């Protein structure tokens, strides 16, 4: 059974069809890239998976269970974490507190506990988890800094640590390489390659080098349709894919 199954999803915005019967299967432990020229429907697909956008038709299922009316705040309970385009960090919270917000899923009392004050033992365990996530991305020494004081590449790592702290089964990354330098992109390839082997990753990304080096499976969208799906080598050799990108560039 696939970890994530997007089946025949169509999304219409008024008269515009942003996605037309798109299907994507994501297996546990695989890194799956969603690529395509500008306006192909990548963000719309990401938003459907996250529950930001409701499909006009079709379905999204996690571990075989169809999600109905799911919303972004349901993702954590499904073992899914995401990072968004940009950073989404809270400017007035320290790096550690930003990551603790992601760790809250593991607190039995959850958000309510945070409001009412949770036990010291639980608080300490959460902090330990958050610090471990920061350390795994090499940014633990910045735990007590405000995000704005860090260079962009390190802030991206903090955003990734916040997603990873809940130890998700599925990590959704929307343009993780955006704004990174070439060497930071190389580091990101290493970070994704070093994730827990059973964790699945879905990434929407423009940087082809990164996609080709880190993904095992790729789905290519063009004008809202899947035009190719397969290994990086298969997708690169597909004439429809070359034509879609050449057409977009002309
Ligand atoms: N909320 C919306 N209302 C109307 N049209 C939308 C909306 N969101 C997206 N679209 C349109 O749907 C199509 C797909 O857009 P989408 O942002 O998903 O593409 P994309 O592949 O992510 O593009 P890019 O690479 O430029 O980010 C585009 O034609 C876009 O203009």
TrEMBL record:
It comes from the Bacteria. It holds the Pfam family ABC_tran. InterPro entries: AAA+_ATPase, ABC_AA/LPS_Transport, ABC_transporter-like_ATP-bd, BCA_ABC_TP_C, P-loop_NTPase. Keywords: ATP-binding, Nucleotide-binding, Transport. GO terms for molecular function: ATP binding. The keyword Transport applies. Residues 4-248 form the ABC transporter domain. SUPFAM superfamilies: P-loop containing nucleoside triphosphate hydrolases. The keyword Transport applies. PANTHER family: ABC TRANSPORTER ATP-BINDING PROTEIN, CONSERVED COMPONENT OF ABC TRANSPORTER FOR NATURAL AMINO ACIDS-RELATED. This is ABC transporter ATP-binding protein.
């Amino acid at each position: 059974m696939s970890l994530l199954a997007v089946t025949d999803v169509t999304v219409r915005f008024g008269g515009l069809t942003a996605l037309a019967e798109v299907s994507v299967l994501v297996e546990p432990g695989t890194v799956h890239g969603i690529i395509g020229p500008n306006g192909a429907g990548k963000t719309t697909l990401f938003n459907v998976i996250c529950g930001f956008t409701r499909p006009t038709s079709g379905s999204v299922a996690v571990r075989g269970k169809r999600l109905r009316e799911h919303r972004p705040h349901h993702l954590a309970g499904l073992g899914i974490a995401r990072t968004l385009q940009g950073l989404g960090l809270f400017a007035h919270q320290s790096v550690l507190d930003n990551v603790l917000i992601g760790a809250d899923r593991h607190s039995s009392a959850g958000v309510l506990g945070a409001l009412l004050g949770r036990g010291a033992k639980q608080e300490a365990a959460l902090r330990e988890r958050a610090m471990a996530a920061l350390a795994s991305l090499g940014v633990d020494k910045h735990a007590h800094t405000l995000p704005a004081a860090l260079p962009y590449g390190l802030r991206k790592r903090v955003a990734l640590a916040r997603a990873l702290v809940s130890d998700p089964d599925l990590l959704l990354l929307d343009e993780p390489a955006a704004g990174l330098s070439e060497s930071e992109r190389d580091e990101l390839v290493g970070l994704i390659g070093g994730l827990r082997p059973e964790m699945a990753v879905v990434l929407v990304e423009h940087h082809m080098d990164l996609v080709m080096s880190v993904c095992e499976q790729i789905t290519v969208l063009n004008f809202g349709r899947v035009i190719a799906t397969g290994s990086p080598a298969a997708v690169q050799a597909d004439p429809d894919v070359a034509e879609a990108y050449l057409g977009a560039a002309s």
